[in-house]
Specification:
Blueprint: H1 7-70, H2 74-79
Length: about 80
Amino acid sequence: DGAEEDPRAVRRKEREVEVWEWMDDLLEGFAEIYRVTVSSGHTCGEAVRRAAYPVKETLVDTYDEVAKRVNPTVEEQSAQ
C-alpha cells in the first residue's frame, strides 16, 4: 500500500499532538506542585508535633512546680 496520507490530515494530527503534549506537560507540572505542597505540609506538621510535645511537657512541669511552691499540701506545710 503505497498510498500517502493527505498533507492536511498530517498537519492536523501534528497540531493535536502538540496541544496534547503541552496539556500533558501542564498537568504534570500541576501534579508535581500538588505533590510537593502536600509533602511539605506533612513534613511541617510532623516537625510541629515533635517540637510541641516536649515544650508542652516542660510548661506543665513548670506550672506544677510553681503551683506546689505557692500552694503546698498540708503534709508539706507541717513538714516545714
